[in-house]
């Protein structure tokens, strides 16, 4: 069980080193912490106390990964008017904006909030998602009245 503790500690170090830890939610951090504590307890010869923590963390991350797949599937559904309005507001665009305006607004915004320039990855991802949603809508890929 010592190898498991070392692997989880290495995983936590890698998450910190690459900056992925910043995108983790509080629940993710708690589950990772529980897994680390469980692995250390198992390595110290207390597998009965460690097993619930390890199993609980594994189940949490399994459920979370399945939820992520459902979210990706939902992203291909037609956009609602509310989602389009929110994406336009984020990019600062009027409702009649064309693809060129969407791309220009995206370039302008992403230059100021890009993670390489001190911005957050979460905000950059949200801006990219808004651009993708509006471009997909403009191409007619998600118009519910079409077809």
UniProtKB/TrEMBL annotation:
Which ranges carry the J domain?
A: 86-147
Membrane-traversing stretches: 47-63
Domain of life, per UniProt, equals Bacteria
InterPro entries from the UniProt entry? DnaJ_domain (IPR001623), J_dom_sf (IPR036869)
Please indicate if the UniProt record lists Membrane as a keyword. Answer: yes
SMART domains per the UniProt record, alphabetical? DnaJ
Q: Which UniProt keywords apply?
A: Membrane, Transmembrane, Transmembrane helix
The name this protein goes by in its record: Molecular chaperone DnaJ
Query: What organism does the UniProt record list as the source?
Result: Sphingobium cloacae
């Amino acid at each position: 069980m010592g190898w498991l503790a070392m692997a989880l500690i290495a995983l936590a170090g890698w998450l910190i080193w690459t900056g992925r830890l910043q995108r983790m939610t509080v629940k993710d951090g708690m589950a990772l912490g529980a897994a680390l504590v469980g692995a250390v307890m198992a390595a110290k010869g207390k597998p009965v106390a460690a097993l619930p923590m390890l199993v609980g963390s594994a189940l949490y991350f399994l459920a979370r990964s399945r939820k992520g797949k459902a979210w990706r599937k939902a992203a291909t559904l037609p956009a609602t008017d509310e989602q389009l309005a929110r994406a336009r507001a984020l990019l600062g665009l009027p409702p009649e904006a064309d693809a060129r305006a969407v791309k220009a607004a995206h370039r302008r915004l992403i230059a100021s909030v890009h993670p390489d320039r001190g911005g957050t990855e979460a905000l950059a991802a949200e801006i990219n998602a808004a651009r993708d949603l509006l471009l997909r809508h403009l191409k007619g890929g998600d118009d519910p009245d079409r077809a």
